[in-house]
Amino acid sequence: MDSSRPASPALVPRLSGAAVTGAGLAVGAAAYLTRSQERAEGTCASDGMCITWGDLTALPVVVVTALVVLVVVYKQLDIRPRLAVIPPTLLLAPLPLAAAQTALGGMATAVAGAVWAGALALTAWDRYRALGVTTAAVLVCGSLVVLYG
Fold first, then answer.
1. How far is the C-alpha of 54 from the C-alpha of 87, rounded, in Å?
2. CA angle (92, 117, 7) in 5-degree steps
3. Residue 147 — very low, low, confident or very high, per pLDDT cuts 50/70/90?
4. What SS3 class is residue 106?
5. Per-residue pLDDT for 2 more than 50?
6. What is the DSSP code (8-state) at residue 80?
7. Of 112, 93, 102, 109, residue with least CA distance to 27
8. Whether the Cβ atoms of residue 86 and residue 116 lie closer than 8 Å to each other
């Protein structure tokens, strides 16, 4: 195949859908986790360790919701193989999202979620796999520098 050819018309809506889904999930997860933390702070009156049901269930609720949404949306967008795209999207997403939230705030979290989901969705096509993996690796490395550098 000629690499100078533009992207296929069917690829653009799929990547756009993945990016919008990633942005929505990032904003939703950040809002839910912030609300959970605020509720826990309002419930716990002492300075000692306090664990609430909201604290215990916040992360599983976010992960399960994201998993279901990604499976449904990626099936509708015909992004395959979902087994190769969804697990890295879920497992490594906290790094770029936390880095964006730490460095620039809420809007950056949405952008990071969109770029992250779009980069990993690119890996579903052989022609763009190297670009998708490279973009995801740069995001993870950059996130590590922001968070721990």
1. 25
2. 135
3. very high
4. helix
5. no
6. S
7. 109
8. no
Residue 5 has pLDDT above 60, yes or no: no
Q: Are 27 and 110 in contact (CB under 8 A)?
A: yes
| Maximum Cα interatomic distance, the chain, rounded to a whole number of Å | 65
> Of the ranges 35-44, 88-97, 125-134, which one carries the lowest mean pLDDT score?
35-44
Q: Per 3-state DSSP, what percentage of the chain is helix, strand, and coil (rounded to 5)?
A: 80, 0, 20
* Sign of the Cα pseudo-torsion (102, 105, 108, 109, in order): positive
pLDDT digits (tens, 9 = 90+) for 28-67: 999 998 898 888 777 777 777 777 888 888 889 999 999 9
Q: Which two tokens stand for residue 144?
A: 């590590």
Find out whether the peptide bond into 81 is cis, omega within 30 degrees of 0.
Answer: yes
3-state secondary structure 15-62: HHHHHHHHHHHHHHHHHHHHHHHHHHHHHCCCCCCCCCHHHHHHHHHH
